Amino acid sequence: MYPLQAGSRNRLSIQRHPLSLLRTPHTSQGKTRSCEAGYNRMIITTARKPSSKTRTFCKHLGRFTGWEYVTRGKTSRDALSDGPFLLVGEYKGNPGSLSFFLNGKSILSIHVSVSMDKEIHSGERPVIEGDSSLAIAFSKVTGLKAGEVGGRVIRINDRIEFIDNMVSYIVLKIRSIRGEGIA
User: Fold this and answer.
1) CA angle, corner 59, sides to 24 and 40, nearest 5?
2) Nearest to 108 by CA among 153, 143, 64, 59
3) Would you say the C-alpha torsion 26, 151, 58, 29 has a positive or negative sign?
4) DSSP string across 107-128
5) What residues form DSSP beta bridges with 172?
6) Structural domain 36-179, CATH architecture
7) Lowest mean pLDDT across 14-23, 110-119, 136-145
8) Considering Cα of 70, then 76, then 79, then 82, what sign does the dihedral take?
9) In 3D, which of 92, 85, 83 has the Cα closest to residue 50?
10) Number of C-alpha atoms within 13 angstroms, CB side, residue 5?
11) DSSP characters for 71-83?
12) Is the CB of residue 65 less than 8 Å from the CB of residue 42?
């Protein structure tokens, strides 16, 4: 790294991702997975300066769901509003909230406490398990199917668990919920 002179600024320009590239098909181990009909291609992003724990959580969540994690940098929320996206917020340096946006409007906001135990790898598309109003809203906003059987499951009850082959990878303890259709 080159030292900066006193009073000067780092003038290196880092080209950010063009928004047209955000909608590329997900690739996993050299294979392209196409988006199925009715499956929303969600983008996961964070606040402008996320902690390393939040970035790690977003990467794991992206691998589990098949959604694309995009570092936000100076990109505004309006620039992301042409499609569905998930904004992961922080609380004391840890992932603390999940805000789902559709057409630039916050549809569902969940305040959580996160625990991750294992490394997650890409796999099949998960299905939603649960019949609560939160499970229904989660299914609507993400485009993931509910009520089906699969190896990868997002179980929603008093907490949200991301399970692959009966092994729990991410557990979200729900603190509060706001959104359309949530009782």
Assistant:
1) 45
2) 143
3) negative
4) EEEEEEEEEE-S-----SPPEE
5) 114, 160
6) 3-Layer(aba) Sandwich (3.40)
7) 14-23
8) positive
9) 92
10) 2
11) --TT--HHHHTTS
12) yes
- Pairing, β 94-102 against β 105-116: antiparallel
pTM given for the model? 0.70
Angle, alpha carbons 97-115-77 (nearest 5°): 25
Pull the structure tokens for residue 93. Answer: 């340096």
Q: In this predicted structure, which of 10-14, 72-76, 157-161 has the lowest mean pLDDT?
A: 10-14
- What is the CA 55 to chain-centroid distance, rounded? 10
φ, ψ for residue 140, nearest 5 deg: -65, -45
**What is the pLDDT averaged over residues 113-119?**
80
Cβ–Cβ under 8 Å, residues 84 and 43:
yes
